[in-house]
Amino acid sequence: MSPSNPLWIAQRNGQDWRDKDVLRAISFLTSVLESGDWSQRLDAVRQKFDAGREAWAGGDSVPLFDPRDLIAWYVFQANAYAQERRDWFEPEAFRIAPVFRRLGQLVPQLEEVAGAMERVEKIMKEGKSQPDDGLFELLVAGAYKTRSWPEVQFVPERPGIAKTHDLFASRGRSRWAVECKRVNRSGYESEEYGHGLRVARTVHELCRSRRRSLVLEVVFEAELANVSDEYLAERADAFITDSSCTQWEDDWSHGRVREVEWHTVQSVLQRDDVFFGSSRMVELLVGRYVQHVDHSVASDWIPARGRPLYATAVNQASVISWMSNSQEAMSRKARHFRSIVARASEQLPADCPSAIHVGYEARDGNSVGALRHELNRIQMRSFDPKKSRLRWVYGNYLSPEHTNHPNESSALSETTATYKIGRHSTSNPLPNHLLFNDDPGVRGHHWRW
Fold first, then answer.
1. Which residue among 241, 335, 359, 427 is buried most deeply as judged by most CB within 10 Å?
2. Contact 417/394 with Cβ under 8 angstroms?
3. pTM (2 decimals)?
4. 97 and 157 Cβ atoms separated by less than 8 Å
5. 171 in Cβ contact with 148 (< 8 Å)
């Protein structure tokens, strides 16, 4: 059945495959640990996950992992993707598996990078609550190593000495300093997402109290922080009162409201169980799944027997799908980009040219929209690197996909934005590069909805 048709059923055989690249990455990362200590950490992850699943079966959606040892949770879910399917938790694992697969592909190159194992040890021991930073540094090191930079080395961190840049890349007489900044799921974008959930919450409460199942698709023109709690609920209430009130457009947003696609949901749930809260469930309720849009789902659902994270029936549901088109929001993100580059520039040396990689895990279309790219370009055009010889800045946007293809369980899209700093003729050290693919990629626009 075509992947564009949501009425497919998960296959019941052929699930015994193993992803050797992911398993290679797991072995690479855990090789720096004592086997006994690692076994205890992994047991703790499994115990919390199993206890959490039982709680979910009783209707209590408790946390399934301990954020204080996030890297252990990453390894646990990577292994679930690679071979232990019963432990797969889609809302988290979809973003973990592609990173581990790429690291597994890069292991031969990373083993030749001086200082790589010391960086791995830091990820697995000292930085276990914030592994994304170190994993991004390994991806960048691998990108240089696979693109004709024969000598790549991590700069050792020395206690009591101000933090320096992350990497040196050398080729003949050419030597570059490289700094990596991973933008974690925090700051303004996280706040913006939180405001989206706040506005969606009142719609869920309204639908639950009225026993109605609605889908609202919204493009906000105003900053989400300024949108009232009741704004979307009022649009939903107007539709419930008068079913002809399906669309709206004002200074705050434009959008539409409609009924849940019950025929699609029930047709599939009669023959299959679906992970609740997953992109697949959104696809069934809405009729399609748009990757680069935020979604909030609430429902009255029945867990499947023996599979408490999966729904075997849905009795009532509401879905809010939104994105922000606010120019003020995008301007604030561009200013944030500039501040990240400014902090990174302070860590660069003055005796060689340098590059900065800013890694984003894209949550929605705005993360890599054409307007935001242009605003970042304007910010970089006037950027003063001061004492450093910063020449190029890369925006590495990574978008793990909630894939709904019937024969695909892990996918990732990426785009690389390149910004020249100052007026110079220094060649770009990584032209047209991608972090998750050795190919140069295809020139074009950023993701748009």
1. 359
2. yes
3. 0.84
4. no
5. yes
